[in-house]
Write a structure and sequence with these properties.
Tscrpt_reg_PadR_N; 17% strand; PadR family transcriptional regulator; elongated; 4 helices; 3 strands; alpha+beta
């Protein structure tokens, strides 16, 4: 999963958001590591929708401008959970290799 995809799904986890909110949330949650442009965001949203990870969740007009809302799907939540688990495992291995914690077996959870 790409970094922008990860942070877009993080932004949508727990609540629906419109495009500008997603831009703000991805930048805030990633502490500035991901700063998407609107064109990049909407291309990613179209791909995520096509892949079944998000879905449209309404539209409204605010100050004469349309706001399209999106929400994460069950499939998107499962993919995000898998990605988080993989990142946590990578971090555990990295810390262990740096001598900061014992390396544990992936299957048993016991120190090896």
């Amino acid at each position: 999963m790409s970094q922008p995809t990860f942070w877009i799904l993080i932004a949508l986890a727990g609540q629906r958001r419109h495009g500008y909110e997603i831009l703000q949330e991805t930048a805030a949650a990633s502490e500035g590591a991901v700063s998407l442009k609107a064109t990049t965001l909407y291309a990613a949203l179209e791909r995520l929708e096509r892949d079944g990870l998000i879905q449209p969740d309404g539209e409204e007009i605010v100050n004469g401008r349309a706001r399209r809302y999106f929400r994460i799907t069950g499939r998107g939540e499962a993919g995000l959970a898998d990605e988080v688990a993989m990142l946590e495992q990578q971090a555990r291995v990295g810390r262990a290799r740096l001598g900061r914690e014992p390396l544990t077996s992936l299957r048993t959870g016991f120190a090896v």
